[in-house]
Fold this protein.
Amino acid sequence: MFFLSLSLITGVVGTIIVLKKMASVAGSVSHSLLASVAIANFLKVNPIVTSIPFAFIISLIIHFIRQNKKLNEDIALSIMWVLGVSIGIIFINLSNTYSSTVSFYLFGNVLFTDFYDVIISFLFAVFILAFYLIFNTEIKNIIVDEDYSKIIGVNTALFNILVLTIVGLSIVLTIKAVGIILLIAIFTIPSTIAYKKSNSIEKCMLISSIISLISFFSGYYISLLLNLPISSTITIMLVMIFLVSELIDRKRGIVWKTRLKET
């Protein structure tokens, strides 16, 4: 169930990340979370306690950065990225001990997830699917043409904040299993493969989820068989699937040709 939940989360959220060209956003959020994990380690509390509010605050900051045309988005996100890592390193140093918890969140390990992680991931996957089904039109509109969405009355600011918050929470809930360092690959590679072979956003999400599920299972069992790090093996499987898909079919999908009136 855990792999299925992770696949749905990365498939749906990853598709939005890829289509809205938010890979740098996901990278900034994931690496900035090292600060919240290190602070939790310093305070001796569960990292979820600090990471959830931290992700929400980061989402609001990123929304401000993306809306402010005077700021260079790439540079601002890069500053957030290194700032989060720097704060994390400082709090790790202040803790005087390098907790195994920090290693779990840096490199990830599915084997260290517990029953509560499985339940929370499953409930969050259900929430994401329900959110997308309820606000299907609005989400498609801000993906395809945000300027036109404003004209037809969609509250783009609200939905952008909601989407960024969901991206942040998705990263928080998958980071323990995947790890900060490799997380961006899990959210972008499956959807990049699916994007080129899809003619609708829903199909892209479905294919992306299936690719994620295949990579999770194959990477997990190969890592156990060869005694390799699970997260790294999963990422390598994803890259191999990507390379094979590129060799088999270079035909580009037509997701971006979807018209607003069809949404």
Notes: The domain at 2-262 is CATH 1.10.3470.10 (ABC transporter involved in vitamin B12 uptake, BtuC). The chain is about 80% helix and 0% strand.
